[in-house]
Amino acid sequence: MPEVDVLAKQIKRYRQAQDMTQFEMSSEIGISEEELSLLERGKTDPKLSTIQKIASCMGITVAELLNTEDEEAEWTI
Questions:
Q1: Which of 13, 26, 42, 48 is buried most, with the most CB atoms less than 10 Å from its CB?
Q2: What is the pTM of this model?
Q3: What values do phi and psi take at 41, rounded to 5?
Q4: How far is residue 70 from each of residues 13, 18, 31, 74, 77, measured CA to CA in Å?
Q5: DSSP assigned state of 46
Q6: Within its chain, how far is the Cα of 50 from the centroid?
Q7: Where are the alpha helices (DSSP H) in the chain?
Q8: What domains appear along the chain, each with residue ranges and CATH number?
Q9: Residue 15: which residues within 8 A CB-CB, separation 6 or more?
């Protein structure tokens, strides 16, 4: 699975685990709801600054968000 798809699933999974809507998260990190939707579907590559904001919003490190080693075992959707 391409890493962009893995990252997209992780962003969505962390957001849902925090019980946040796309609108709430996008507002908090300063991007449009449409851009967040595209990120979660793997349709666009996030900027590093956006990745940092998402990790901060979720209370995790960038390394945790970008960890793709055990993604399929941990994040079965």
A1: 26
A2: 0.80
A3: -100, 0
A4: 14, 20, 28, 6, 14
A5: P
A6: 9
A7: 3-17, 22-29, 33-40, 48-58, 62-66, 71-74
A8: 3-74 (1.10.260.40)
A9: 22, 25, 40, 58
